[in-house]
Design brief:
Layout lengths: L40 H13 L6 H4 L1 H15 L1
Length: about 80
């Protein structure tokens, strides 16, 4: 089988198969999906926006593991 050119793959964002968000500080075993919890509404929205934009559009500081961990910890602390 011969292929012509590169594959033309683009994500289909019109279909949503599910939303998951786990708080690894409170629930390291990922037993409770917090995606529908109103307290995490902003986090779900921001992460979804980043996902749809693609990794090339995420500011470098937010791609660094340490800064994301710090941001997540601060949000969890504010919920207590």
């Amino acid at each position: 089988m011969k292929f012509r050119g590169a594959p033309d793959y683009k994500p289909d964002w019109s279909v949503q198969y599910g939303v998951e968000l786990y708080d690894h500080v409170k629930d390291p075993g990922e037993n409770r999906n917090e995606a529908n919890n109103p307290e995490y509404k902003t986090a779900v929205w921001e992460l979804s926006k980043m996902l749809h934009a693609g990794w090339r559009h995420v500011p470098l500081q937010e791609m660094e593991y340490d800064s994301l961990t710090t941001q997540a910890r601060n949000e969890v602390r504010s919920l207590k």
